């Protein structure tokens, strides 16, 4: 028997029983699922496309207009809403999908991606009626909801004879992404996963990690958003460049939080970063050199620019480890040229502990070369470029960045009551980071 008739019959039976016997909160999700099983047929069965593609948009809009005009029919959009209001964003999403039918016509991939919306997201809605632990990356979603999304998507795909585990995994991650509408994100990401499964899967994980860091106040909201776009661009161009920048981002956040109370006593102007997280500008400052290198790679297809991108990220972690860890691990800080002792926390100061920490950071990022191993020459050139860039950062910071003593600590911008102890107020900390990472990239581009 044709699946259209089976699912249509089930829809009539289930909806009839639901309206009579169940509370409204259950009816909405049941409506979500069973009506979807009818709609989805016309994406996975080519013979039905010409007729349904022509009729459904008009039918959908007609029903919706009737619901808006005649008060007695207002219960239909209310059934679809989450908050008993008849005009939420979710309803717009549903009817946008109906209107999209003629555009996609018999696109089997789009039809199978709707399995995630119909079966996965629909079944996940029932998780709100049970106690379950919230997701670390999105407190409004639960672990049970993730598993129900995975299970519901697979069951729906099985019904249409085309199980795709990767798209189901993307669905369960996409449904729990913090967004305006999970109906939109789950459908879009699942659809894209049919074209580039690995990259879309990795991207959903990266979005969750960024969201988690934002919740834990390691990134600001804008910092998390810009980081997602930066990571997406790196992912699009090169896995090696992505791994290097992602490694810097995660390890840099960990390093900046290490013994932060002691660091707050030494560096008086970083309290905002430690309390609210890294901002969008900080994410941009540390990524601009890498991004430009990747743009040149897309233009020239010269692998040297990928290596330069990795070197830029390696310099950023070298500098972060050297300054953030060196500041709290060392009791003695030295001038980068004269090696005389200077006040701990001063811009451009170096220490034995900080230098060793920086070397470790550079070596960690250098391991990214094993993604597509071409010999140890690339490994050591990245290490060398990172050290050169980090040392340049110290020199620029010592002479062209303001350092002042204030309340037994150090400030990096002039404030009332501070006394200058080194450098002129020419570069900000972000500008120094940009210049130093470009120096590392140029070492690779010119000499490698």
Task: Describe the overall structure.
The protein has 448 residues and is mainly alpha-helical. The protein folds into 2 domains: 3-193, no CATH class; 239-447, no CATH class. It is 69% helix and 5% strand. The protein is built from 21 helices and 7 strands. The strands form 3 sheets. A 3-stranded antiparallel beta sheet has the order 6-5-7, with no helix packed on it. It has a two-stranded antiparallel ribbon with strand order 1-2. It has a two-stranded antiparallel ribbon with strand order 3-4. The longest helix is centred in the last third of the chain and has 26 residues, at 304-329. It is globular, with a radius of gyration of 28 Å. The model is unreliable at 66-80 (pLDDT under 50).
């Amino acid at each position: 028997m044709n699946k259209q008739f089976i699912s249509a019959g089930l829809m009539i039976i289930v909806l009839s029983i639901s309206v009579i016997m169940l509370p409204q909160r259950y009816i909405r999700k049941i409506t979500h699922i069973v009506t979807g099983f009818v709609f989805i047929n016309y994406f996975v069965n080519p013979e039905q496309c010409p007729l349904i593609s022509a009729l459904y948009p008009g039918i959908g809009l007609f029903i919706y207009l009737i619901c808006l005009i005649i008060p007695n029919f207002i219960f239909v959009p209310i059934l679809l809403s989450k908050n008993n209001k008849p005009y939420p964003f979710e309803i717009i999403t549903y009817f946008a999908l109906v209107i999209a039918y003629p555009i996609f016509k018999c696109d089997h991939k789009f039809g199978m991606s709707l399995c995630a919306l119909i079966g996965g997201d629909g079944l996940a809605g029932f998780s709100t009626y049970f106690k379950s632990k919230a997701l670390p990356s999105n407190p409004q979603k639960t672990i049970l909801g993730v598993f129900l999304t995975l299970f519901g998507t697979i069951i729906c795909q099985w019904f249409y004879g085309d199980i795709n585990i990767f798209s189901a995994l993307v669905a369960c991650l996409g449904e729990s992404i913090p967004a305006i509408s999970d109906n939109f994100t789950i459908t879009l990401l699942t659809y894209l996963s049919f074209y580039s499964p690995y990259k879309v899967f990795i991207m959903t994980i990266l979005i969750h990690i960024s969201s988690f860091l934002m919740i834990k106040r390691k990134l600001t909201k804008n910092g998390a958003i810009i980081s997602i776009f930066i990571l997406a661009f790196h992912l699009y161009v090169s896995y090696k460049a992505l791994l290097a920048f992602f490694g810097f981002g995660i390890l840099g956040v960990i390093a900046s939080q290490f013994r932060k109370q002691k660091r707050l006593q030494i560096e008086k102007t970083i309290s905002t970063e430690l309390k609210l997280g890294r901002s969008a500008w900080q994410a941009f400052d540390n990524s601009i050199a890498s991004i430009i290198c990747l743009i040149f790679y897309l233009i020239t297809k010269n692998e040297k620019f990928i290596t330069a991108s990795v070197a830029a990220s390696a310099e950023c972690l070298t500098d972060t480890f050297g300054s953030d860890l060196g500041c709290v691990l060392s009791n003695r800080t030295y001038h980068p040229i004269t090696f005389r002792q200077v006040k701990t926390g001063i811009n451009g100061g170096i220490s034995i502990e900080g230098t060793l920490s920086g070397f470790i950071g550079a070596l960690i990022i250098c391991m990214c070369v094993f993604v597509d191993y071409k010999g140890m020459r690339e490994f050591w050139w990245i290490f060398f470029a990172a050290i050169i860039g980090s040392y340049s950062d110290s020199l620029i910071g010592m002479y062209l960045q303001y350092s002042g003593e204030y309340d037994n600590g150090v400030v990096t911008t002039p404030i009332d009551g501070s006394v200058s102890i080194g450098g002129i107020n020419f570069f900000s900390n972000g500008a120094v980071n940009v210049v130093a990472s470009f120096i590392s990239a140029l070492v690779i581009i010119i000499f490698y």
